[in-house]
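User: Hi! Is it possible to get a structure for several chains at once, not just one? Here's what I have:
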Amino acid sequence: MEAVSRRKALTMGLALAGGGVGAVAARDLGPLMGSQPGFHHPEPARAAMQRRHLPNVPLVTHEGYQVRFYDDLVRDKRVLINYIDTHNLPNASVVTANLALLQRLLRSRVGGKGDISMYSITSNPRQDTPDVLGAWARRHQARPGWLFLTGEPGEVETLRRSLGFAYADPADDADPSAIGAILKHGNEAEMRWAHCQAQADARQVALRIVADFGPDPSVPRDPQWFCSNSTVAPLP
Amino acid sequence: MRQHPDKVARRALEHRQAILREGLSRRDLLKMGLLSSSGFLVLQSGLSARAKGSGGGVLSPRLTPFVEPLTIMPVLPERTLGELGPTPNISPNRAVNPATGLPFEGRTEAHQSRSAYPVRKYLATRMGANTNVRPHPDLPPQTFWGYNKGGTDFATDPAVSPGPTIVARYGSPVLVRRFNDLPPPGQNGGFGVPEVDTHLHNFHSATDSDGGPCNPVEQRFFFRGQYYDYFYNMQYAGFASTHRPAGDIREALGTLWYHDHRVDHTAENVYKGLAGMFVAFNEFDTGDETTGLRLPGFPDFDIPIMLSDKLFDPTTGLLYFDTFGLDGLVGDTFLVNGTVQPFLEVTKRRYRLRICDGGPSRFYQLFLTNPDNLGQSIPVWVISSDGNLLPRPVQATSFRLGVAERNDVIVDFAKIAERFGNPSRIWLENRLEQVNGRGPTGKILPPGQGNALIEFRLVGSKVVDTSFDPEPVSFPNVPAAPDDHVFGPIGLPPIDNETPRLTRSFRFERGNGQWQINGQFMACTDFRFTVQQNTMERWILKNNSGSWQHPVHIHLEEFRILRHNGQPVLPGSVEYGRKDTVKLGAGDEVELVMRFRDYKGAYPMHCHNTVHEDHAMMLLWNVDEVGDNKNEP
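Assistant: Yes, the chains can be modeled jointly so their relative placement is included. Here is the combined structure:
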């Protein structure tokens, strides 16, 4: 009973302290008796991951198409995702050139009937309009299967945070180069996500991605494929 | 109005997201005092171990501490050769298994020293999912990944986490066949990948059995449906070079741990349970307190302890990991040997606790706290650094562990009863504040306000204890000297009898938000430099990454720290020992020497904050007959 009254007091303290915009001063007082909140499994793990990290925000491609991030771009797909700000030079050019190399290394796996999609999302949606991104894509000779994406600034920001292109440190979090440092790759259905460094050697990045995504499904599988680093062809 | 505090906290986080959506900047919030530097609305932690987490806003449910007893992991039982299945040969079994379409064995390299040291002990273990894990009675049954005792049926021999403790003896070579029976892709509950590679941290292993992340020629990890034979020759370093044929007893390793090392996915796989302890005995450190060094007897009074901090989803009560996060993950719920804040009944005598920081990102400063008299300073005797016996035990009232570091400590509950008013309970308490994955703040919390990890319950009266008493020979009761060897012949091999072949410098840094070492990125197929086999080198590790802190681990052999931030590491310091991981605090510079004996091949050096490690804070180096002279590789 004593514990319950402590909890009541605690709750009241919280309620008082929480008078501002959601401020909380919670203080644990050690073992509290009483029942735990009931746990339930309201959603499968994949749905929870979608809710937390893969919001279905509307975006616009560099070709002007309206898309939904989760439904159209990520669900059931193997994807590469990075953030760029085409006004953050030379960083954005270096990263984009590297990804253009990566796209060539991954050959037919990106675009057409390939199994991998590439997305470069702007962290500067106010300036990176679809037209600007379209010109950027042409300048970097992006091939089909690689989309450059923008959208309403609030939505793009929500997406950035959900995808974890964000840092606890405010300076890092405001730095487009830091935001653009990471190339994330994921297999949505398998709930498998990992990161490479967007400026790392493209062949190294390709190897890491292939290690996660497996061999090209369109090529007959060699049982020893995974123990060979020749799974990525040299550039033609 | 009654409201559970967790609900209030959750709602506060939702408010935070709303505030951010409304465009109030972090700076505004900080100015208003509403946001902590870790990005959470202001919370105060307390003694029930709900430290501030850093897992994307997840606050674990409140759990009552000290409800369940400490789990003592079972010892992995010996198997007959016949029980293993296909004969384990020196060469890997690369025949294709028609059931999987993959080679039976994931290993691709031959065991380097096995012909000279035939296997005397066979072990087997299967990695798999256990869907019925209860870290706390108030959490729902849930899935962890772990290792079983080698049986073929998880129904009767389930995978547990931490895995069974492997007990080995020097001079008795061990082969461990590890089967990957993890669930198929897409059945990971949100994180964990079913490819693995098991590093024995930090045994003096050949590259074929080291369990490193990658290898310039092949991928090191292996797949579901495969096994991998790991061979540990159980010889001391120097066995094929300076001290043939058994190695240098002074290099004896004692407390090791094994854990997954799958490149890019180590953090989530270890967090999900793929880790266990490994204890190595020898003719001096025998495990029997009536013989040799008479350290407290295994397993009753010699207890491996693995610490790990976790997050549990407050809605589902299930283990949560943020595979999208970059900074590192700090949990608010502390598991010790797989159980939330357990208790352990102890008799009034000495215990050897082998404490390992299992990560992913937290540093600990561990104290013994009498919760009924918080003003007491209770000593322990630290007898090992990274599991290797020190030249002289160090009496301390606290000790610090970074991820992957181990300290063996002697806790004397008889003396605690005598000198501290016969307390009925004592906590092992972490009092180091850490609010995010960058590293600890450095603040030591007041006693009783940190994270109580274990409650020791002192029962009975003082018992006969013939085990070694470190107090009369410990520093600072006794001055420490360079030639100390309290645990002789185990101790410190001389390092001044050999001139380092060269000095190499490594800057651990951050460029444009990316981890780099000496301005370069991790490459899985290239080694940065080549060390000449059977030589010594001097390495300087410098943390140039601002306020980030990194526990840096080097595979192959133990090193000796000469200087930390320019100050010589002197006898009497816990760092004055053989180590495999060193805490690189913000701006730190560490000078160490290391030998590279007996083996050839590629080994890594990496940050053991496993989230940083997965974000490529790593490099590979090579050992060969001829070394290079790259000073800043």
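Residues 1-55 of chain B have pLDDT under 50 and may be disordered. Helices of chain B lie at 5-22, 26-32, 207-210, 266-271, 413-419, 610-614.

User: Great, thank you!
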